[in-house]
Each structure stands twice: as C-alpha cells, then as structure tokens.
Amino acid sequence: MTKLIITGNGFDIAHRLKTQYKDFREYLESRRSEYTSYEDQIRVQIGIVQAKFELLCEPDNLWSDFETQTLKIINEIQNGNNINLFGDTYCASSVSKLQTWKNIRNSITNILKEKTGNNGLSFEMHEMVKKMASDIIDRAVMLKYYWMPCLYGVFQDWITTITYENSTKHFSISKSDIAITFNYTDTLESLYGITDILHIHGSVSEIDSIVLGFHSEELDNDLPGLNEMHTHRFKERKKASRANGINSTGQAVFYESNIGRFYKPVHQLKNNINTFLENKSFEEVVVIGHSYNEIDWTYFKELLANYPNKNYIFTYYDESDKKNALIMINMIGPINKYRIVDVKDYLIK
C-alpha cells in the first residue's frame, strides 16, 4: 500500500542532520569575519548581518523562534519610518509608492531650478529627474535594509553545507511511497530512494526556490499583494520587464525584489499540495518529525479538506509534540480516522 509521508524538521534531526536554526546561528558565527554581498553593490561582514538581525528581531538563545521573529523584518520594512529623503521621513513601503516618487521628483526639480535660476526645465532634464528620483529612492532603501537579503543569501549558503555523512535509514518508509516534506534537504531522496516528492518550501536542489519566514492571516489582510511578490511567475515577469528596460513607475527595485523574502505565502503554497496529489493513489497519511506548530496548520487543513477519508497517523517525539498534535486536530478537524503514535513505532525493526 502506497503511503503519503509528510516530514518536518524532526525527521532530519533524527538522521543527525544539523538542520536546526541554532545550527544556522552557529554557521553564521563561524563565518562572522567573512564577507557577503548584495548583488555586488554592497559588501558586508557576515557578523554585521547577524548583529542587525539580532538587534531588530531579538531571537531566543537557540534561535528556535527564528521563523516567528522574521515577522519583525516584515513589519520593519513595511512600517519603520527610517528612510530620510529631502527632510521628510518615510517607511520603505511608502517610499516605493507613486506619490512619494512624485514628491522626491519635485524636490529634485526645485533644487535644480534654484541652482540654475530657470523656472522651467527642458524635456531632457525632466527625464533625468525621473531617473534620479528612482535611483535615490532605491539607494536609500538598499542602504538601510541591505542586510535582509544578505541574511537570506547566507541562509541559502548554509543549506548547501548540510550533508548526509554517517546517516542511515531510520524509519519504515518504502521507496514506492510518495512524500510532502517541509524540509529543504534531500533526505528522502538520498536515504530512502523516494522520487515522487513535493518540497513545499523549496529544496537544496533548487536553492532559489527556498521559502523562508512567517505567515499569518493578519499579514494577508494588512499587506494585500505581498503574497504575490515572490511567486515564480512574479519574479519571471519582473525579470523580463527589466530586461526590456521597463520599471514600475515609482517603485524601488530593492523594495520590490526583497520585501517578500521573509513572507511565507502559505495560501499560494497549499495549492501546490492539491496539484501534487492530483490523480495519485494512497490510503494512509503518516506524519513524521513535525512539531505541529500553528504556523503550518493551514497545510494540514487543506490536506484534510481534500482527503477527509484517508487514514491519518500523527507521530510524536515527545509530550509537547503529542499535545500540539491534539490541539491541531481539534482546531482543523474533525478527522474521521486518525491515530497519534510514538515515532518509535515507525523505526526500522
């Protein structure tokens, strides 16, 4: 019988992979004197990037709350009034709006008029002012928040360092099973030989596809459109536009490219589950290595809504996982057929 295996980070940890956020922190600290860069425009020490993150987000000592803390990154770039331009203060999101761009353009125009003594500017100068306004906005936002994409980039680097040395199969999983994994690693492929896998948050095999960060219904409501900013379709469209010399009027390129870095578009990603499972045959769903935190409930709710009659098995590692599983089931249920079992029951005998 083909099973649908769903794995969380506990699955990788059981295989002795260093995939916890505390391992990412240690990776940063081991490279703190080295340099990273943002698109070859800014070069900065990794230790400074880490310090900027810790100052703004204040994670716990183990960085176990890393994803939750990234909400502060989104709030800062959306609401932090730290961009000073021509005597006025803006937040990064308002700087990228058309009216702000017009204000900056008018400020530059007035300065030029004062310097040249001309009340009117030529068409060529007006075009120059438009470009200057866009460049000034973009540079100001980048200089303030350059460390954010740098942190994301170093996170990608860290993922590629995780290896499977000294790792062996632990669980009773068949290579004929199908899988949905929340992990970036290729553990299921490398150790279990499974080929039919959905990496819901991207994988090390396609490093640019990695989704990292926070999601909440409040963010969806407060920041409409944010969910679109890092879809593959959006990025390809913007890439094509820039290649043809087309930029959105008033938009800061840095803002447009980076505001979505730490936003997890769950309501987009959950659709991938249905696409992946379409026309696939399975009777049992086995969840291994999940802590059942609320941030991922949406995925399980989507799965249950579309496959209510499957047999669900939720494994737990400790009492905290068991408690969280019960809470999740009560919140997203009812579930017709399910069991909550010790993960040891799925170890290879």
Based on DSSP secondary structure assignment, what is the total number of beta strands?
A: 10
Main sheet makeup: 6 strands, parallel
- Fraction in helix: 40-55%
| Overall SS class | alpha/beta
User: Which segments are poorly predicted (pLDDT under 50) over 5 or more consecutive residues?
Assistant: none
* Cross-sheet strand order for the largest sheet: 7-6-1-8-9-10
Mean pLDDT: 87
C-alpha geometry:
elongated
Beta-strand share of residues: 5-15%
Please report the number of helical segments.
Answer: 15
Could you give the distance between the termini? 19 Å
Radius of gyration, CA atoms, in whole angstroms: 24 Å
Order of helices and strands: EHHEEHHEEHHHHEHEHHHHEHEHE
Structure, explained:
The protein has 349 residues and is an alpha/beta fold. 48% of the residues lie in helices and 12% in strands. The protein has a 6-stranded parallel sheet with strand order 7-6-1-8-9-10. A two-stranded antiparallel ribbon has the order 2-3. α3 packs across α8 (147-161), α6 crosses α7 and α13 (266-277) packs parallel to α14. The chain is elongated.
